[in-house]
Amino acid sequence: MSVTDIEWAAIKNNDKTYDGIFWYAVKSTKIFCRPSCPSKMPNRHNITVYYDKNEPGQRGYRQCKRCQPLGEPVDNEEWIKTINNILETKYAQKLSLEDLGHLAHGSPSYLRHVYKNFTGITPQQRLIELRLQAAKKELLQSNLAIKVIAGKVGIENVSYFIKKFREKYGESPLHYRKSHAKKSDS
C-alpha cells in the first residue's frame, strides 16, 4: 500500500499533529518513527504507514532511537542490532559516521559512544572489518584487480586498503590471493 499525499506531507513536514495517529516504517533501515521525527527524510517508496502502534514491531521493525515512537527509550542492544544491520548491508557504500547516525536515527557521537561501549570497537572499525572480509572473499572468487576490489568493498584509497588488509591478515592482498589460490588448486 502506498503512502498517501497527506501522510507523506505529515512526514516531510515533521508534523506533530499526526503523532499518535500513525507511525511510518522505513524498509531500507527496518526502523519505525513518528511523523514528527527529525531524522533524515527517507525515500517515499521505502515507507509503509501503520495506524496501529504495535504493528511495526510485530513486522520486525525497530523503534527509532531519536523520536522514540512508542514513548519509551529504545534498548541499546536493539539499537546495536540495527547499526550492525546497516553496516552489513551498506558496507560497500560511502558511509561516514554522520551517514550512519542518519540511517540509525541517532546522533553520530552518541551512536559511536554506545556502539563502542557495547561492542568494544567503534562502528568505523567494524565497517573496516566487514570490508576486509568481503575483499578476502572477492580475492579468491575473482580475478579483479586489487584496485577494483578495494573500490567494490567501499575503500577508494588502494594504498589504505592494502595497509589495512596487511594489518588484519599479515600479508598483502596480492600475496593472499596467490598463496591461497595455490592451496585451493592442490
Automatic annotation (TrEMBL):
Residues 81-179 form the HTH araC/xylS-type domain. It comes from the Bacteria. One of its GO terms (molecular function) is zinc ion binding. Its cofactor is Zn(2+). GO terms for biological process: DNA repair; methylation. Keywords: Activator, DNA-binding, Methyltransferase, Transcription, Transcription regulation, Transferase. This is Methylphosphotriester-DNA alkyltransferase. It comes from Brochothrix thermosphacta (Microbacterium thermosphactum). The lineage of its organism: Bacteria, Bacillati, Bacillota, Bacilli, Bacillales.
